[in-house]
Amino acid sequence: MPPALQLLLAAQAPMAAPAQQPPQAPGWLTESEAARLAGMQHPARRQEFIACRYALRHLLAMAHGTTADHWRLDAPEGRAPHLNAQHHGEEAAGSTHLSLSHSGAWLACAAAPHPVGIDLEVKDLHASRRDVLALAGMACTPGELAQLQALDDGPARQRHFLQIWSLKEAYFKCTGTGVDFAAIRRIECRPAGLPIQGEVLAHARAWHGATAGGHAVLLSVCVLGAGGLLPCSLQVDADIAWQGEGDWCLVALPG
Ligand SMILES: CC(C)(COP(=O)(O)OP(=O)(O)OC[C@H]1O[C@@H](n2cnc3c(N)ncnc32)[C@H](O)[C@@H]1OP(=O)(O)O)[C@@H](O)C(=O)NCCC(=O)NCCS
């Protein structure tokens, strides 16, 4: 029996290379995937799309001991990918939840028996000139904003904001709504294990590290509900030096 939460982080290029036959779509794409690919003009976006679809199949194949071409997936625009119900049956499609994320030259994907959201952020924090406090004003609770204000204006503040943002993106992928700016400032990320007041919406785990080129890597995975995180298996097909991991709760603030 595979662990309940299967995760893969990989570089896009090697994942796309064996699968890609430009300029045509690879034969293993389903109709809905091929239709989305046909609407993509930019070669890098096409490669990213193909790499992610192949990575999902690779993840499912590893978890279930099949070949990658066993899996047929649909790719609705603005929604998470899912198993093709005609090919795999309604029951399997309804009980296999998928999520994916891409950032720079990297991708991450997840498969689970419950709704799951994954988010990957790969950024050069030293080069970033983003006004973190302005972004935080749109995405953070007052408590999170105070944490950011207490940090020096530099990589540490950028990293902490990226951590909060990544956890919330993973949460909104779980719910399927995409980022909800009407709700996001009332949802707070709290380290797991501390006493919690308020409704626990979701549990998450986050890993942080760095690429060989020195870019920060933040990977977050989230599952809904107060029941806690499922057992988790993370495979990394990428040159990343991990620096730590932690468990989080996403809590709804009252009001
Ligand atoms: C969906 C969303 C969270 C994706 O985040 P992102 O940082 O742009 O991109 P990521 O690489 O992390 O994730 C992209 C993948 O998320 C998945 N996805 C898209 N919409 C999704 C949804 N509603 N629920 C779950 N997953 C979704 C797709 O698989 C997508 O990959 P694909 O386009 O290659 O198929 C984000 O774009 C969003 O919230 N959009 C809707 C709200 C919005 O437009 N807000 C902007 C207002 S300023």
Question: Would you kindly provide a brief summary of this structure?
Answer:
The protein is 32% helix and 31% strand. With 255 residues, it is α+β, with helices and mostly antiparallel strands. It has a 5-stranded antiparallel sheet, with helices on one face.
Explain this structure to me?
This protein has a five-stranded antiparallel β-sheet with strand order 6-9-8-11-7, with helices on one face. It has two domains: 5-113, Ribosomal Protein L22, Chain A, CATH 3.90.470; 118-252, Alpha-Beta Complex (Ribosomal Protein L22, Chain A), CATH 3.90.470. The mean pLDDT is 92. 32% of the residues lie in helices and 31% in strands. The chain is of the alpha+beta class. Helix 6 packs antiparallel against helix 7. Coenzyme A is lined by residues 49, 52, 75, 78-81, 99-102, 119, 169, 172-173, 176-179.
